[in-house]
């Protein structure tokens, strides 16, 4: 049954797991030019940002002003002020409140100054009442709470002001950087047709010197303009030619071939892998075939070696059997004569009446005769005659030759497949040229060039504006710090006034006593009131100005940018004037919808999906696997390798085994051998009888009998040592040979038949199965190498649609603009005016509570008063304490 395994060795074979399909890692094309996404930076002011947004939602409850903006953009002169005021009603109300604050608080401050000059405000309490303590505590609590709110507000204002400064500068840098990276990303999608024309134009016009080179390096579209401008061509052509090895021109050439060309060049990754596999495929296939067939082949060789060994061992044991039987027969005749003489002598002696106690030994002596008769065993001369001269074949040499022939299969596969491997390498090199067609026909730059020019223009124009922003941001920050410091100064005066006033009250024994610390506390409170009146108008001006700018940015721009209302406004025909029409400016299709384009780009859609370029360029036609692998696969399918026949036995070896099978060794009467060897050489043990005679010698009274018993004992020992022991050793040797032959004989015929059948099967089926295994391995190799081609083409498809030709950077750039303007600048800006505005409005209760509390920190002037109970209080003259110098 073992031989039938060879009938279909590839039925259950899968492709070898030891050489799996590798997953290639290709270079990240355009990864260094992806627009880095800006994210909202978490801040401790986030809760404040939420409060400000909710406040602005209350102030501006109107939706996005589509009609108003349409009129303003298309017919600015027809915009009516009433429409603007109606839309900005919330801000108008806030402006009215700011104006009222701007007028009322300074006016109140002037009145307070006049009143204070006449000593009518902020004076002293003229009578001590029981309710003064409760009133003073209430005022102290209210002023403390107001001061705490002012302190919290000014801290938030300081933090927000600093946060605006910290975000303004990187935000200003991020705008041109984002535009530059986006432009680089767009420009990194080259069209090789244009690239080649650039190189030809450089070669023909010899443009690599002076001013032309500077234009070439600064403006990527210069060469395209040069092709359409003959005077410029003449000017550049008239310049001296460049020196050999110009590094700048070469660098530009190399820089132009990015994106799609880099994708094409990445074919080197699977190409190197396929070439490496081709270098090892022939030896690998040979080893695989050798590995899959070696178990059966080595089993047959082992069987041949076993049968040859059986032949030699059988012949050896037959010779031992024949020779031993003849020797035993010869010794048997001599031993029989000696035993008869010893039997007659011993029986006559032991039967004598003078022999004392000899009856037991007499019985043993009467059995002194041969036990086994070796002349009755079957003869093996005929079998030996048949096997005489065997083995005639050189079985070790045949086995070594079979091993050598079979083990040479890997080297044979290498030699046979050398030419086809070279042809396959040539096919792979041809595929490299075919892949270049992807870059040669890629048309995306026809559509991205207007966008690239627009981005370049926007980048160049953004620099001066951003420089101005940085310049004015510095002054805004300084003004914010100054006004926050004013509020902080008021808070400081309040805190000092509360602290000194409370200390003075605690140290005063009599309400009418003068206390310098209480007086100082009152003065500090009045100083805080003065600062509040003095700077309140400036604070409200800054608060309203920043509120008007930041609030409108949040409600009009950021809110509608986040919910994409701005994109929908741009998409609606007629909203934008022709000078601002993106479809015309960027040479886009009229059916393009900015909202859907943004959403598609956000999800990573390709430019040809967004720009609807599939009609102009069918990517799948260039990425079909068969057009690159057809010839490669055809050469592998047509390859055929014929393995030479392997012969494990020659004619002499077959005749030897056939002679061995027909020798009749399995028909010998081995049970007769075994039965005869069960009989002892002598029926009576000579050793026991000799020991019995020695024992009888000692008890005999007759010296003559005793002497004869000693002689008989010695004679028996001599026969035992000289003859019986030798025959017993020969019997043991004979028994080993009989055991081997009797064990081997029943299985000889089946083993020989099976071995001959396996040899015939192997020699017939080995080339066929080797061929089938070869086809199987070539099929596995083909699928593996096609997998590398498929990996590359799938990567090309994904890269061209998602990385190289992806419009996701456009969506990322738009999101970055919103994050920079709204999340990083507008939110802390709004938090600043909100915090400072809270402080400004809380200055009013601070002024009121400070003025009220000032009287309680000064000594009370007692006077005679009449009450309902007719109580009279003596007039108290305050004590004046001289200062010690």
Keywords:
single chain; 885 residues; 3 domains; 29 helices; 0% strand; elongated; disordered N terminus; disordered C terminus
Q: Report how far the terminal alpha carbons are from each other.
A: 130 Å
User: How many distinct beta strands?
Assistant: 0
Q: Could you describe the largest sheet, including whether it forms a barrel?
A: none
Strand content bin: under 5%
Q: Can you write the helix and strand succession as a string?
A: HHHHHHHHHHHHHHHHHHHHHHHHHHHHH
Query: Which stretches of 5+ consecutive residues score pLDDT under 50?
Result: 1-7, 191-257, 863-885
Give a structural overview.
By secondary structure, the protein is an all-alpha fold. It has three domains: 31-124 and 135-187 and 456-601 and 809-857, no CATH class; 192-257, no CATH class; 297-401 and 646-781. It contains 29 helices and no strands. It has helices at residues 46-59, 66-74, 81-87, 89-117, 132-187, 192-205, 210-218, 222-227, 230-237, 247-256, 260-265, 268-350, 359-365, 381-386, 395-407, 409-440, 444-507, 516-562, 565-571, 582-585, 594-602, 607-610, 619-622, 626-638, 651-661, 670-678, 686-699, 703-804, 808-854. It starts with 45 loop residues before the first helix and ends in a 31-residue tail after the last helix.
């Amino acid at each position: 049954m073992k031989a039938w395994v060879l009938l279909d060795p590839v039925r259950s074979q899968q492709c070898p797991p030891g050489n799996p399909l590798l997953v290639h890692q290709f270079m990240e094309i355009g990864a260094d030019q992806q627009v880095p996404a800006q994210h909202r930076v978490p801040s401790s002011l986030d809760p404040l940002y939420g409060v400000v947004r909710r406040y602005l939602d209350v102030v501006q409850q109107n939706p996005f002003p589509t009609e108003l903006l349409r009129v303003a953009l298309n017919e600015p002169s027809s915009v009516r002020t009433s429409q603007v005021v109606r839309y900005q009603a919330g801000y108008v109300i806030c402006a009215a409140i700011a104006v009222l604050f701007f007028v009322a608080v300074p006016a109140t401050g002037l009145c307070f100054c006049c009143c204070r000059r006449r000593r009518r405000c902020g004076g002293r309490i003229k009578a001590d009442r029981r309710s003064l303590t409760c009133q003073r505590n209430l005022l102290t609590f209210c002023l403390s709470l107001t001061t705490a709110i002012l302190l919290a507000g000014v801290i938030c204002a300081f933090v927000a002001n600093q946060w605006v400064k910290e975000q303004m500068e990187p935000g200003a840098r991020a705008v041109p950087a984002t535009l530059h990276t986006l432009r680089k990303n767009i420009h990194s999608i080259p069209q090789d047709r244009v690239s080649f024309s650039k190189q030809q134009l450089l070669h023909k016009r010899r443009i690599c010197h002076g001013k032309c080179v500077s234009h070439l390096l600064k403006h990527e579209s210069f060469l395209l303009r040069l092709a359409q401008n003959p005077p410029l061509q003449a000017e550049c052509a008239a310049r001296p030619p460049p020196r050999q090895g110009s590094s700048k021109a070469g660098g530009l050439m190399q820089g132009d071939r990015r994106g799609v060309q880099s994708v094409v060049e990445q074919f080197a990754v699977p190409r190197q892998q396929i070439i490496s596999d081709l270098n090892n495929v022939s030896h690998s296939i040979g080893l695989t075939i050798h590995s899959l067939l070696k178990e059966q082949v080595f089993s047959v060789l082992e069987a041949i070696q076993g049968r040859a060994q059986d032949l030699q061992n059988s012949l050896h044991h037959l010779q031992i059997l024949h020779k031993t039987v003849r020797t035993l027969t010869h010794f048997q005749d001599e031993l029989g004569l000696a035993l008869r003489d010893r039997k007659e002598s011993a029986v006559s002696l032991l039967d004598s009446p003078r022999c004392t106690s000899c009856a037991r030994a007499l019985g043993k002596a009467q059995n002194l005769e041969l036990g086994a008769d070796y002349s009755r065993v079957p003869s093996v001369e005929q079998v030996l005659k048949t096997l005489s001269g065997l083995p005639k074949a050189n079985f070790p040499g045949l086995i070594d030759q079979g091993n050598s022939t079979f083990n040479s299969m890997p080297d044979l596969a290498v030699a046979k497949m050398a030419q086809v491997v070279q042809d396959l390498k040539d096919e792979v090199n041809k595929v490299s040229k075919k892949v270049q067609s992807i870059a040669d026909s890629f048309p995306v730059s026809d559509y991205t060039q207007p966008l690239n020019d627009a981005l370049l223009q926007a980048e160049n124009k953004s620099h001066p504006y951003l420089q101005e922003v940085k310049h004015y941001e510095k002054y805004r920050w300084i003004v914010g710090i100054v006004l926050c410091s004013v509020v902080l100064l008021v808070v400081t005066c309040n805190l000092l006034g509360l602290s000194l006033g409370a200390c003075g009250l605690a140290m005063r024994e009599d309400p009418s006593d003068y206390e310098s610390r209480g007086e100082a506390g009152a003065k500090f409170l009045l100083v805080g009131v003065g600062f509040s009146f003095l700077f309140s108008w400036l604070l409200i001006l800054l608060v309203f100005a920043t509120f008007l700018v930041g609030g409108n940015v949040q409600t009009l721009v950021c809110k509608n940018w986040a919910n994409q209302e701005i994109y929908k406004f741009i998409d609606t025909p007629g909203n934008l004037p022709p000078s601002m029409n993106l479809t015309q400016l960027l040479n886009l299709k009229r059916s393009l919808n900015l909202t859907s384009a943004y959403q598609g780009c956000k999800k990573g859609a390709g430019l040809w999906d967004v720009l609807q370029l599939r009609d102009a360029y069918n990517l799948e036609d260039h990425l079909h696997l068969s057009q690159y692998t057809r010839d490669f696969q055809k050469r592998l399918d047509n390859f055929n390798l014929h393995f030479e026949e392997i012969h494990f036995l020659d004619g002499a070896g077959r005749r030897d085994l056939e002679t061995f099978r027909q020798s009749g060794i399995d028909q010998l009467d081995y049970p007769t051998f075994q039965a005869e060897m069960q009989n002892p050489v002598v029926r009576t043990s000579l050793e026991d009888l000799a020991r019995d005679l020695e024992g009888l010698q000692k008890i005999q009274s007759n010296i003559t009998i005793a002497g004869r018993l000693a002689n008989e004992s010695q004679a028996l020992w001599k026969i035992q040592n000289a003859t019986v022991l030798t025959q017993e050793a020969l019997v043991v040797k004979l028994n080993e040979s009989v055991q081997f032959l009797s064990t081997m004989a029943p299985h000889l015929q089946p083993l020989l038949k099976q071995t001959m059948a396996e040899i015939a099967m192997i020699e017939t089926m080995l080339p066929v199965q080797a061929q089938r295994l070869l086809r199987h391995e070539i099929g596995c190799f083909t699928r593996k190498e096609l997998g590398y081609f498929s990996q590359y083409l799938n990567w090309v498809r994904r890269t061209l649609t998602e990385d190289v030709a992806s419009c996701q950077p456009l969506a990322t750039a738009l999101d970055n603009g919103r994050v920079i303007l709204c999340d990083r600048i507008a939110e802390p800006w709004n938090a600043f005016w909100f915090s400072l505005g809270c402080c400004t409005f809380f200055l009013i209760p601070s002024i009121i509570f400070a003025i009220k509390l000032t009287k309680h920190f000064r000594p009370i002037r007692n006077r005679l008063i009449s009450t309902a109970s007719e109580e009279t209080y003596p007039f108290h003259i305050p004590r004046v304490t001289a200062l010690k110098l």
